[in-house]
Design goal:
The complex is a heterodimer. By secondary structure, chain A is of the alpha/beta class. Chain A has helices at 12-24, 35-45, 61-70, 88-96, 109-123, and strands at residues 4-8, 28-32, 49-53, 78-83, 101-104. The termini of chain A are close together. Chain B has 21 helices and 19 strands. Classes of the chains: A alpha/beta, B alpha+beta.
């Protein structure tokens, strides 16, 4: 069965490309526009991996990340954080809160796909 | 006639007795050696002549007395007189040589004492001169320090350990003026003044914490034992305060050296509100720019990368192209928006300084002539004094670069400089006459080349320099008397109008501002009650009010308050309070000739509710003084309910004090007293003018009161109550 991925980002323009790219890779992709929706879908669908923007409306990506890592039932989920904040401290925060990868925008899609594949592949 | 000298009497008696004794001995001896017959003969010969014998004896005493008297005068009295004279010389400053008299030895002694006196006088004069020179030097140094301070662009305040201000500069005064409730020039004087407490403007806890830090660092032997803190003040402004210690000085054989003991502290105060705001604004712009751009770029880049993939469905292709278009448009828009504000915020980073246009031109002329040997003319515009805000070094380099290119490519040998104001900006023109056949085209790119002056090349271009200034640069042609002149026009920012100093025009202008009083370094004794404090050491607020009439209880109102301070026996004519008050009622026309205040003048002025609290602040910790104080105090106290401030300060009345000192004078009117003391009144019947004179009078009165045994405030108040005038009811 194909791995499932949730992409949570409020930039609709980015979602279009990422959705197509990851579907093309054969993943089962669902989308969320804000933090609360993302959390809800995570609990419902229990995706294998979440691509999470750090600055989501309603609940930030950091909060979502923290909650996922705080819940034993969700601990297996891989988290890739996307962020427009490029400071060292932000990256450290993302990693500290439990993100498996922290990718600064703008990024190369190839790199993102590589990162996702590696994280999911390592699981198998 | 001098009383009979006992030594003379004694001497004569002794000689007389000795003679008598000698006579008796001679008689006895004669009697013993002569036989009775001869003795008979002798007695017979002398018979009845015994009186003669006695007379002879007495007569011999007269020359004895004369001789003795002379000897006493010569050998005893003369040294005694000399001793008296010497004692007088020793104990007083009399400059007189002792009279030589008596024996030669005594005369010589007098001469030597005379020489000693002369020597002493010379030494004393020399010492006086040195002391005078030294104190002149000290005074000069103090003045120089005060002058230096007043020129600094940072606020400087020096306090003793009690937090009493003993020096401040003009910048500090201006800074604290902005904190005052009163918008007028008098505002701020209630906060910043000699002898005032710094704690009225700065939190005592912050200051003492900083003091502790400084002291700790001092004891640790730190090389720069200063401390910093940032504090928000009433108006919400942020101040950065740097504190450095004023150390005590000991002197020994090796000269003066500073110790670890603090006697006071220096505060450097900077208003960083604008800096902090600008900094925050800069940060906000940068963050917005980078973070928003990152998101947009991420979307666009992802879309572009997807587009590169083969076999994209047509609708998706359209969608992705729309994404790229939209994000790029958004980015462009954001840049457009950010640029003006960012430019402003970023520009403030460059250390631009205020410079008089003429100085800039002069510097340019000098550099152009020395660097290239060009003939440089200056064309003066109408505006004589244009103040520029420039970074003069790089700006001059840019001008030199352009001139160098002109010389090189257009064979220009003469230039004209012109500085004018063009729609709120300064236009610096570099004018030249183009030669025939010169390559004018080259000029276009010169402002984009790295600046080259002599062998030096900067990493900046002329354009960079102008951007630094938020300016521009272009080439223009002007047709003047059929000559085609070309010029580079450099648009540069003008400096904001210089901060105006409060004009104290009616005050007597003294050569130096009284912004310091180092005598305040001594810590004041707080244990002393005010009543026991000596009059000469108190701080006074001498004030006067002008009113619409003489019956404050029946509705007459204050229309002007003027006050000056006296600290350490000096009238601080720079620390004054001078405020018109809107009485909210008609000013009776009959009173206008007296105080000279017309309804127009009080229109728009603050009302008593604003002015009195501010004046109360001005009077803090001082003794109030007024001429005929009862009236003025009544005016103030009638407003206590309305304004909520109580004037319960101790009060002195110069009228009563004058009556105390000159009880036999008929008039104790202000003019009469001023005349007695030889003071001239400037601006009589303006509140500030009268307050000034009253202050001068008080300063003159204090020593006169001391002669009458009145030294303390308590004594002065008690004595004043007993004068005739105090009994008259106002």
């Amino acid at each position: 069965m194909a791995s499932s991925i949730l992409i949570a980002d409020n930039e609709a323009n980015l979602l279009i490309s990422l959705e197509y790219l990851l579907q093309r890779q054969g993943y089962d992709v669902s989308l969320a526009r804000d933090g609360s929706q993302a959390m809800q879908l995570i609990r419902q669908q229990q995706p294998d991996l979440v691509v999470l923007d750090a600055m989501l409306p309603s609940r930030s990506g950091f909060e979502v990340c923290q909650e996922v890592r705080g819940d034993p039932a969700l601990r297996h989920i891989r988290l890739v954080m996307l962020s427009a904040r490029a400071r060292e401290t932000d990256m450290a925060k993302g990693k500290a809160l439990g993100a498996d990868a922290y990718i600064v925008k703008p990024f190369s899609t190839e790199e993102l796909v590589h990162q996702v594949r590696q994280l999911l592949g390592a699981d198998r | 006639m001098r009383p009979l000298d006992w030594r003379l009497v004694l001497g004569v008696t002794i000689v007389g007795l000795v003679c008598l004794l000698w006579l008796l001995v001679a008689g006895v001896l004669l009697w013993a050696v002569l036989d009775p017959n001869d003795w008979e003969t002798v007695l017979e010969a002398l018979g009845g002549k015994g009186g003669l014998l006695l007379f002879l004896w007495a007569g011999s005493l007269v020359p004895t007395a004369v001789a003795l008297r002379h000897l006493i005068e010569h050998y005893l009295r003369a040294p005694a007189k000399l001793a008296e004279e010497a004692r007088l010389l020793l104990e007083t400053d009399v400059q007189r040589l002792p009279t030589p008299r008596g024996s030669n030895e005594n005369r010589r002694l007098a001469e030597i004492i005379g020489q000693l006196v002369t020597q002493r006088e010379a030494l004393r004069a020399d010492m006086d001169q040195r002391v005078r020179a030294a104190s002149r030097q000290t005074e000069l140094e103090k003045n120089r320090l005060a002058a230096l301070m007043s020129e600094l662009t940072k606020s400087v305040v020096v306090c003793n350990l009690d937090g009493r201000i003993l020096l401040y500069n003009n910048r500090a005064r201006l800074q604290f003026r902005r904190l005052s409730r009163l918008p007028t020039p008098a505002g701020g004087a209630e906060l910043m003044g000699l002898g005032r407490s710094i704690y009225t403007v700065l939190d005592r806890k912050l200051v003492s914490h900083a003091l502790e830090n400084v002291q700790r660092r001092l004891h640790r032997g730190a090389s720069a034992p200063s401390a910093q803190f940032v504090t928000a003040i009433r108006s919400g402004k942020l101040l950065r305060v740097q504190m450095s210690p004023v150390r005590d000085v000991t002197s020994d054989d090796h000269g003066a050296r500073t110790t670890d003991t603090m006697t006071g502290f220096v505060l450097l105060i900077e208003n960083i509100t604008d800096d902090v705001q600008a900094h925050a604004e800069k940060n906000r712009i940068l963050t917005n720019l980078t973070e928003d751009s990152r998101s947009a770029l991420a979307s666009a880049r992802a879309a572009a990368e997807v587009l590169e993939l083969p076999d994209i469905p047509a609708p998706l292709r359209e969608q992705l192209l729309a994404v790229i278009r939209e994000e790029l448009q958004g980015l462009s828009r954001r840049l457009e928006e950010a640029q003006p504000t960012a430019g402003r915020a970023l520009r403030s980073r460059w250390p631009l300084e205020d410079m008089l246009g003429d100085d800039l031109i002069e510097a340019a002329v000098q550099r152009l002539e020395s660097e290239f040997g060009l003939t440089v003319d200056v064309e003066r515009g109408q505006d004589q004094s244009v103040w520029m805000k420039v970074e003069s070094f790089t700006l001059l380099q840019a001008v030199l670069h352009l001139a160098g290119r002109l010389r090189q490519h257009c064979r220009v040998r003469a230039l004209t400089l012109r500085l004018t104001e063009q729609s709120g900006q300064g236009a610096l023109d570099l004018i030249w006459m183009p030669c025939d056949g010169a390559n004018d085209k080259a000029q276009l790119g010169w402002d984009d080349e790295p600046i080259e002056v002599g062998s030096e090349t900067l990493s900046l271009t002329v354009r960079d320099v102008l951007e630094r200034h938020g300016g521009e640069c272009w080439i223009e042609q002007e047709i003047d008397d059929a000559r085609h002149r070309c010029f580079f026009r450099l648009m540069l920012p003008l400096a904001a109008t210089q901060e105006e100093l409060p004009a104290a025009t009616f005050m007597r202008h003294e050569s130096r501002p009284e912004y310091y009083d180092f005598d305040l370094f001594q810590t004041t004794e707080r244990t002393q009650s005010l009543d026991d404090s000596p009059l000469s050491k108190l701080a006074y607020t001498v004030f006067d009010t002008e009113t619409t009439g003489l019956n404050p209880a029946e509705g007459d109102e204050i229309i002007q308050i003027g006050a000056v301070r006296i600290v350490n026996g000096k009238v601080l004519s720079q620390e004054f309070f001078d405020q018109l008050v809107d009485p909210k009622r008609v000013i009776p026309p009959a009173s206008i000739p007296i105080h000279g205040i017309t309804p127009d003048m009080v229109k728009g002025q603050p009302t008593i509710e604003t002015v009195l609290p501010s004046f109360h602040g001005f009077c803090e910790d001082t003794v109030l003084v007024a001429h005929n104080a009862a009236f003025d105090m009544r005016c103030l106290q009638l407003k206590e309910k309305l304004t909520g401030v109580r004037f319960d300060h101790p009060v002195l009345d110069t009228l009563l004090l004058s009556a105390l000192v000159h009880e036999n004078q008929d008039s104790h009117r202000l003019e009469a007293i001023a005349e007695r003391f030889g003071l001239t009144i400037i601006g009589r019947h303006t509140a500030i003018g009268d307050a000034m004179v009253t202050a001068e009078i008080l300063v003159k009165l204090i020593p006169l009161l001391a002669e009458k045994g009145i030294h303390t405030l308590g004594q002065a108040r008690a004595a004043a109550q007993k004068t005739y005038y105090a009994r008259v009811n106002y």
